[in-house]
Amino acid sequence: MKVSELMGRKVLDKNAMEIGKVSDVDLMPKEGIIDTITISTGEVWVRNRTFEIKPRDIQQVGDYLILNLEEAEIEGIFEEEEEKAPEKTRLTLTKED
User: Fold this and answer.
1) Domain range summary for the chain, segments of one domain joined by +
2) CB burial readout 33-43, b (16+ within 10 A) else e
3) Could you tell me which CATH number the domain at 3-84 has?
């Protein structure tokens, strides 16, 4: 399967609940393998969020990308990524004359 065929593919959790779509794929070029796949929740969840999975998190690839994760495990991934994310700094820009 080509990487381009994964892009935009719908993603389901292990209970066949729609999670989102594949929005990006990171490759390890020297090894020729996928390192991570980024999933965007888009319109499926209340707010648009993205998270990364490893190939080991995939149960099956067909018309859908089916994960071997449940919704609660995916929520845990969101929490981990939010903890790792650097704090956002608000900047105020002013124009000097």
Assistant:
1) 3-84
2) ebebbebbbee
3) 2.30.30.240
Closest CA to 21 of 34, 12, 8: 8
pTM of the model: 0.72
Q: Minimal CA–CA distance to 52: which of 30, 19, 29?
A: 19
Q: What is the mean pLDDT of the chain?
A: 82
11 closest CA partner among 33, 45, 47, 34: 45
Which residues have CB under 8 Å from 90's CB, separation 6+? none
